[in-house]
Amino acid sequence: MVDSTPPTPTKVAFAVAGEGIEQVELTDPWNAVERAGYQPVLVSVEPGTVQAFNHLDKADTFEVNTTFDAAIVAEYAALVLPGGVANPDALRTEPRAVSFVKEFVASGKPVAAICHAAWTLVEAGAVDGRRLASWPSLRTDIRNAGGTWVDEEVVVDGNLISSRNPDDLPAFNRELLSALDAMG
Questions:
Q1: Contact in structure between 174 and 28 (CB atoms under 8 Å)
Q2: Are 90 and 140 in contact (CB under 8 A)?
Q3: What pLDDT is attached to residue 37?
C-alpha cells in the first residue's frame, strides 16, 4: 500500500522587512534550525537583500530567498519573526506580510517571535487571549490587543513561542526546535 500522506515540510520561514532586523535574532535561530536539519528560508516584501543591524549600527546584508507574494504557508514547518525595532514596525505595515503571518498562526504550525516582533503578531490579530513575552515597550500594545504580556525568557502558548530579547535566544531556540520536533 502506498502512503499518500504528504511529507512534513522541512523549510522554516524567517519573515523580515527590508531593513532594521536585529542580526543575532535572525542568525542565531537560523543556525539552530539549520543544524537541526531544517532549511531556513528568508522571506521578505521585495527580492534582493535586506539590511540587518546590531542594535542601531548597520551589520550584514542577507539575500532574500522568496517574497510574501510567492511564499505558501503549506510549504513551511514553522515561522520565525526576528525583532529589531524597525523591522517589525515596517513589516506590520505590509498587508502581504501581515496576511502571511495571520495565515501561519491560523495553520497551527509553530510561530516564534522575539523582542519587537510581537508587533507583527498584534497587527495580524494573533494575540487576543494569548500570553506573550516581548521587549517591555510592547507591553501596552499586547494588552490593548487582548493578550497578556509577561516578563519571562520564553513563553509557549499554543503554537506561539515568544521571547523578550537576544539574551533569551538559547531558550527561544530550544522551544522552537522542540515545536518542530513535535510536528515531525
A1: no
A2: no
A3: 95
Calpha distance 9→7 (Å, rounded)? 6
89-108 pLDDT, tens digit each? 999 999 999 999 999 999 99
pTM for the model stands at 0.95
* Residue count (the chain): 184
How many C-beta atoms lie closer than 10 Å to residue 141's C-beta? Answer: 18
Q: Which residue from 111, 118, 167 is spatially nearest to 140, judged by alpha carbons?
A: 118
> CA 174, 113, 125, 98 torsion: positive or negative?
negative
The answer to whether 114 and 81 are in contact (CB under 8 A) is yes
| Cα Rg of the chain (Å, integer) | 15
Instruction: Determine the average pLDDT of the residues in 137-164.
Output: 98
Task: Answer whether 154's CB lies under 8 Å from 133's CB.
Answer: yes
Catalytic residues: 115-116
Convert 73-102 to b/e letters by CB count within 10 Å (16 or more is b): beebbbbbbbbbbbbbebbbebeebbebbb
Nearest to 108 by CA among 148, 78, 70: 78
For the chain, counts of helices (H) and of strands (E):
6, 12
Dig out the grid coordinates for 97 from the structure: 506580510
